């Protein structure tokens, strides 16, 4: 029997796969994995059907369809006020996860350290390890899951190459402030670091706040790979398509990796996205209000529950603090409630090297109002 010495000995089946499988097995309401249970805009689905019927079925250019990259450059100018060259600074990729992997592969060498802020999305550390780097885990502050700049500074060494950030933040729903971005800019300039900025939930920001993108801080923009996902913005997570924005020299290196990992993203999907954005350029700007209404419905329906709730500032995730109910560890409680109550969520401890002290579970509110109300009714009975 041939065996391999694992390059990722600590990686097993992801928590998303496990909890979604358990939810299906138990017939539970699935508020675990982050995907909408409603359809993507009709115009977008029709555009995909049209794209395949009209013959957009062969390889796209490696960097992505020019028509889509032009739409994206226009969007970035309108929503973030930044000018981006679609030819040299935008690369369409098969999902933000692939974009992040390519950015890390292009930047990190053996022994380089990369600072990640825990809890963090589960693809970061394996990408760093596969590049031969070392993930240096720094916890976010436990109260509001915001960056603790003192601890981040203390973690920087002469080997630090990159810092990975994620705003709006999965799994906690926190967001970076202008002050956080200023701090980050000072830090990376002082230590000559690169930034891998995961902004896949850029449009899902609430209560009048604005998304802070690395593209809007000149000192950050020069050193950053900024990652976006059409899956999140257009409710098509299964289309696995995203894009990366980076200055020309960084983009050139990212593309060298991308062309041998995937080479291209799916052509008709790119064509459909380009057509849809041309027809409905304001669609992404309506998302914040749409998801804020869902967040508020969910929280209001839980007002008589025993959970402590701080409304999420961004993403489509809401943390519920269960410390007044039980001291059971989050991963156990999550499985117990999926089986016994029929509501599946996600524990946040698998996203951290050191288990966080806060007793919270993550619930996805990208679901129909009926499903959210049904889940809340069950959760109120605890
Ligand atoms: C923070 C974060 N980054 C990246 C991704 C992956 O995006 P994509 O499906 O485009 O690879 C997700 C998906 O859940 C996410 O939550």
Automatic annotation (TrEMBL):
| Any one GO CC term of the record | cytoplasm
GO molecular function, one example?
Answer: kynurenine-oxoglutarate transaminase activity
**Gene3D superfamilies xref list:** Aspartate Aminotransferase, domain 1, Type I PLP-dependent aspartate aminotransferase-like (Major domain)
Where the record annotates domain Aminotransferase class I/classII large, the positions are: 29-377
Where are the annotated coiled coils located?
none
Query: CDD domains per the record?
Result: AAT_like
- CC cofactor: pyridoxal 5'-phosphate
Q: Does the keyword RNA-binding apply?
A: no
**NCBIfam families recorded for this chain?**
PRK09082.1 (NF006569)
> What is the protein's given name?
Aminotransferase class I/II-fold pyridoxal phosphate-dependent enzyme
């Amino acid at each position: 029997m041939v065996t391999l010495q694992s390059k990722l000995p600590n990686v097993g089946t992801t928590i998303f796969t496990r909890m979604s499988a358990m939810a299906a097995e138990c017939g539970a309401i699935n508020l675990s994995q982050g995907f909408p249970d409603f359809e993507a805009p009709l115009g977008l689905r029709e555009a995909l059907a049209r794209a395949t019927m009209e013959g957009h079925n062969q390889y796209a250019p490696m960097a992505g369809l020019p028509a889509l990259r032009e739409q994206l450059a226009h969007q970035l100018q309108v929503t973030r006020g930044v000018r981006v060259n679609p030819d040299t600074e935008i690369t369409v990729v098969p999902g933000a996860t692939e974009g992040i992997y390519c950015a890390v592969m292009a930047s990190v060498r053996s022994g380089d350290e990369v600072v990640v802020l825990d809890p963090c999305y589960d693809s970061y550390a394996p990408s760093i390890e596969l590049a031969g780097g070392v993930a240096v885990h720094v916890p976010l502050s436990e109260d509001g899951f915001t960056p603790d700049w003192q601890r981040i500074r203390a973690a920087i060494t002469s080997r630090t190459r990159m810092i990975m950030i994620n705003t709006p933040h999965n799994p906690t729903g926190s967001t970076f402030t202008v002050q956080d971005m200023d701090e980050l800019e000072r830090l990376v300039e002082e230590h000559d670091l690169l930034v891998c900025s995961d902004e896949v939930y850029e449009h899902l920001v609430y209560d009048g706040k604005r998304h802070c993108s690395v593209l809007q801080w000149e000192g950050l923009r020069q050193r950053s790979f900024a990652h976006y996902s059409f899956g999140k913005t257009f409710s098509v997570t299964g289309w696995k398509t995203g894009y990366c924005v980076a200055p020309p020299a960084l983009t050139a290196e990212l593309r060298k990796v991308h062309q041998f990992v995937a080479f291209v993203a799916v052509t008709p999907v790119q064509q459909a996205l380009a057509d849809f954005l041309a027809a409905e350029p304001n669609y992404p700007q309506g998302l914040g209000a749409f998801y804020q209404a869902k967040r508020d419905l969910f929280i209001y329906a839980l007002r008589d529950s025993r959970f402590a709730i701080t409304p999420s500032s961004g993403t489509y995730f809401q943390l519920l603090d269960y410390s007044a109910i039980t001291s059971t560890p989050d991963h156990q409680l999550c499985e117990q409630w999926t089986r016994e109550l029929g509501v599946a969520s996600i524990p946040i401890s698998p996203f951290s090297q050191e288990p966080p002290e806060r007793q919270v579970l993550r619930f996805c509110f990208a679901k129909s109002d009926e499903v959210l109300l049904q889940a809340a009714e069950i959760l109120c009975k605890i």
